[in-house]
Structures are given as structure tokens and as C-alpha cells.
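Collaborator request log, item 7. Partner lab (contact: R.S.) asked for a structural prediction of Knr4/Smi1-like domain-containing protein to inform their binding assays.
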Amino acid sequence: MLTTVSEWTEFFGRYRKRSSELLEREEIEVFDSTWLAIRPASEAAVDATQDRLGVHFPPDLFSFYLTCNGWPADSWYNPAINCLADLDWLEKQNPGLHKLVSDAATAQWPGRQDDDPDLVAYRLEQGTQVMRTIAITFDHDDQPTVLLDPESDWRLGSWLHSHPAMLWTDGGFSEYMIDRYENLILLDT
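Returned to partner:
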């Protein structure tokens, strides 16, 4: 897990190099200037965002924003990470998706009782847990919407338009960023 500014800085150096190797020449210039333009957030700005949202970020997310205030998209499936000013609850970021998952939280299954374990699990994973998340990416085109659930130890999930359901991971934010990097390596093989 990446939990310090120095760990994130070293990781971003590798990530940026790999991204640059894979992008076409025109995109490299945009990527370089975009990456350099995303300056670190101050600790006061991170604290103010936590206060605005009423949460305390885990160490990996806190140190991410102290290293860079957002991250650009680097492929069709790796969306841009929101800057602090754009972080918000799913209900405000994407009311349509929030409505969809609120319906899942009260779903009825024919022949199943409300206490059926499969129905209870579905309602939690696809409804309740999604409704209480913070969106760390915007919903653009066919890119996934990436969400963090502060009530489940900051578990991360993605809502994919091609697979209209929540896909939860066992990891958090830094694991997500490491997976993004590893996917860039796979593109090159």
C-alpha cells in the first residue's frame, strides 16, 4: 500500500514513464503537460475536503492528494481521478446512478423473503453500499465510475456501463492505482 508522499512520488514516476511509452506522440505532450499541471494539494485543502464530506481519508488517499491533486485519464478504461474540489458523494456526482442503486437496495425477488441471505447480500452490495459512496471519478462516456465506501474500511468498487452492476474489490485506493499501472504493463505485452 502507498501511504506516504515519497512512495506516491516514486510510483508516479514509474507510472508516468510507462504511460508515456504507450501513448502516441501527440498524446504524450498532452499527458506531460497535464501531469505537471496537477500540483499537490495542501494539507489544509485535504482537511477542508474531509470536513466538507464529513469523513477522514485513509492514509493512502490522504497522501495521494498531498502528492497530486487528481490524476489524468490514461486510457479508455482508466478514468481521471477527481481533484479535491470535485470529490463528492455519489448522490451529488451522479444522481441517475444513485437512483438506480437505491432501487437495488429495496429490490424484491419473486419467491424470496426479505431475510433471504442472497437477497440481503445483493441489496447491500448493489444498493446500500453503493449509495453511501464517494465518487472519485466522473461518469464520462463508457469509462467506469470509481467509488469508495467510507463505511466499509474504504473499499473500492467500479460501476461499469458494459456490466451494469457494482464490482467491488478487496483493496482500497492505492491498490486500485497499482492495478491501473499493472494494466498499462499488460497493454505493452
